[in-house]
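ASSEMBLY PREDICTION REQUEST
Request ID: AP-0331
Submitted by: J.K., bench scientist
Number of chains: two
Total residues: 602
Priority: normal
Notes: Please return the full assembly, not individual chains.
Input sequences:
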Amino acid sequence: MRRFLIVRAAQAMIVVALVVTLSFVLVHAAPNDPFGLSFDDPNITEQVRARERAKFGYDRPLGEQYIRWIGAIVRGDLGVSHSNGRPVAEVLKQVLPNTALLMGAALFVGLVGGVAVGTWQAARAGTVGDRISSAVTMITLSVPEFLLALAAIGLLSVRWHLFPVTGMVDVAMHDTMSFGGRVVDTLRHLVLPASTLALVVIAAVSRYQRTAVIAVLPDDFIRTARATGASERRVLWRHAFPNSLAPLCAIVGLLLPALFGGAVFVEKIFGWPGMGTTMVNAVLGRDYPMVLAGVICSGVLVAVGSAVADMLAMVIDPRLERLS
Amino acid sequence: MITTMPLLDVRDLTLVYPSRYTLLGTETGATRAVDNVSFTIHPGETLALVGESGSGKSSLARAILRLVEPTSGKIVFDGVDLRALDRPALRLMRRHLQIVFQDPGPALNPRMTVAALIREGIDAHAIARGAEADERVGRLLDEVGLRRTDGARYPHELSGGQRQRIAIARALAVEPKLVVLDEAVSALDVTVQAQVTDLLASLQRDRGLSYLFIAHNLALVERIASRVAVMYLGRIVEHGTVAQIYDSPTHPHTRALLDAVPVPDPRRHAARTVQDQP
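STATUS: Completed
Returned structure:
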């Protein structure tokens, strides 16, 4: 297991290094720079912009900028975010937990819900219940996330006033609340954005899980379990289910970065102060250090996701233990 | 002759796999896998069912246990008409009627330890719980010649012969009256075949089990069975005591099966089977 982690960490570093280098080139290749866009006040002269650029070294050759930047990263210095006017590390410290809360909630609800729905469908494949619920999941997958988000806001927040429209907390009242009140306040704000993301995860995961369980059901050991006298529920959950989880592990690895991307839209729409909102603003403002920090985060997430997926696969299948 | 009521009485059992239509609309013909088969098995007795592959033996085995639904006919087990049972009643009846499949590899859940696999039936039928269930599993491991420490291992860590012993222990865990051995030794090495067959014979003596011993050749049959039924194209074409079948086979297919048995000296083999006649 230790060897596995070391190998995976080395692989992750290579992947992140490549992705970051590519992103560095792409971000700088995009037209304009942090100071061409952010200071669109007509009173600011070209000299001021040039001074600012020189201050951050953006007037140097790209290769030199790259080496300086990498050097700073290795020392743990992510630079200063132009769009936030603060060190990048400080911004991350503030927004990453918010995104982690949103993604964590969506991933948990999405995985549990998707696995339950898919397994339930597989057990009655071909019946009316399976067909109707399959149609619903397909429709959910076809609709873009931001439309789901807007529909949720329109119905549940604006019309029925069940949930707040935007933000992560009630800005006016939050600080006056007790600890329990603040938790409830945050959860109330979390419901809609997390559900929107979770709905898409449920739809995707249930499709895979349905197929995986259907693939396992004709296996010999299922027949053995029935012949032993196990109930159908026991056959499904104790025998078919554990043997259907291998594809799911691979999907979890892919879901993490996909959710990170999906969170961008959902955060923007719900005004959730997380990585998504921050990244959209950073890209629009050509905030090089912030964009690249975001890329590092998602690169690490991809590596962690696939490592977690492989570890999960080992946990659920005793036959794989020896392979590591 | 045996005068008690038969434990299993199969009458005119027929299993037809329905025809299917391909995407292009061509029809594949329906298959009569089991065609009007009748036989009985008495308590403590072993009936061998022999036939080449594709003759319908496994289909018959699965139809008897209703792992596939028979098309017509009657299965009376211990006085109960199995085909009349609903699902929950059938599930409870499985306690008395177990099966060991040919290939123990895919037939054992790979995610479960040996002990959990054997314990499955004990839990499913609420026969024992806690430490008592553990003790039962341990005794079953002893009985089938495995070590108690093997209980913590997974099936893939054991050999084919050991896995078949697990499958046997799993079947016996619910204390059945009849065990269908669906080519239970065919997939094993010849030496292991003999060991497992001897194990089955000794378990039968100790527990008073009845067996339906299914095989594709006659090689091991006389080691365990008293009567033999020969199956060919879904029908039982010949039926008799081991001696009758070995000494005076009437159906050409039986003769072909007999010719396939490797015997170093046919006359000595014939003499031995005559001696064994009751």
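REVIEWER COMMENTS: Chain B has one domain: 8-275.
SIGN-OFF: pending second reviewer
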